[in-house]
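SAMPLE LOG
Freezer: B-3
Tube label: C17
Construct: single chain, 449 aa
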Amino acid sequence: MAQKECEDSMLPIRLTLDGFLRLLVEIDQALSEAQDFAALEKNIAAAVRTCACGLLAGALESLDEQLAANRDKTRWKPVNRKARTVVTIVGEVTYWRRYDVDPQTGERRFLLDERLGIAERQRMSPGLREQAVTLAMEMSYRRAAKVLSQWVPAITAMAVWQELQRAGEAERQQAAASRERVFERGQVRELCVEADGVMIRAREAEGERKHMEVKLAVAYEGKRPTAQGRQALVERRLVGGVIEGPVFWEEAVVEWGRTWDWRSVERCWLGTDGAAWAKKGVELLPGAVHRLDGFHLRRALLRALGREQEAYRAVCAALEAQEWGQVEAALKEAERGSGARGQERIRELRKYLRQNWGGIVGSGAAAGLGAIEGQVFHTVARRMKRHGARWSAKGADHLVRVMVARANGKPPVWRSKQAGGSAEGRKEARWCPSEGERLMRKQRAAGEW
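STRUCTURE (predicted):
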């Protein structure tokens, strides 16, 4: 019996031998025709890919034979066999699989496709799809397609774009489905959160809007020194997307609730640049206190006053003393000696400081903040603010979510979530209600009231 099962699980010996014999013939031909190492390398690689395609097609058809032999013959009746072509990491593979029907219900299915989790119109294999999405996070879709085409033919920029959209949509759906569920994992008394936005160019199809904002937030427990003399964020977790501020913060609270137990968080420092949507996080993050980011504060001061002027030093001294009256006096003095444009910039600075005064006072307790600019650059700006790049809101949101998933080091949803799998695989996991979930519902109910 064991021998019979072993034989059933193996490729047909004739197919295997034919494949290797064909490989040996092509390698021999490559050796005889090679004029230099580059030609030899190219021809042998092509021969190996051709052999691999044949073996993969044979393995798929052999598995289909096993599924057909073990199917419920009282229910499923064979109709015919249909060919399917899938682009894999070794090339295009065409294989035949059986098409079955249930005479009672009329339901039709490909047992092989369901067994392997291959969606109905999925052209790329999981391995090639992963490579395409990974390249799309580092370079333009057109360039990613060009890189892949060196080994796998018939890869277009549109195909790479479509795979990235599917990956981003899977991440978005998981975030949307998880907004009502919060998980408790870690215990931490103090948490650092920073949020910022980066403007990217919008496509013409987005109407009158020329730019759109990508929102990004990072949460971490603190900083630790590294061997290179720098500092690394402890338990860094990112959240990003092209969505409205309230929805963004709901997703952030849920996502970070997978790592930290919100009931144990006594203080949450929220660092922002003063944007209204970013400061809204105080309403949802437990124990949150807003702090104005020092980088943006210094940039606002320099933009309005300049580095070498006496007014700059006077305003800085007033800010350190945390006396609004002294700040007002220093700004009025600076305004007297400025022209029309300078006075306008100083008035804008006064408004900015007034709106964020609560985030300036007592900011020394959150001196460890200041990591968001680097997170924005490495996660979003380096890829999405390249020359000539333009985005739709949906496409940008999908790309950001995939890049954030990679930065967080978690297994991406799109890698394991294969549409068209078994009924058991499509069932959504049921999660137990948590204390964090009840906290979120209470806050939301209070806000609605």
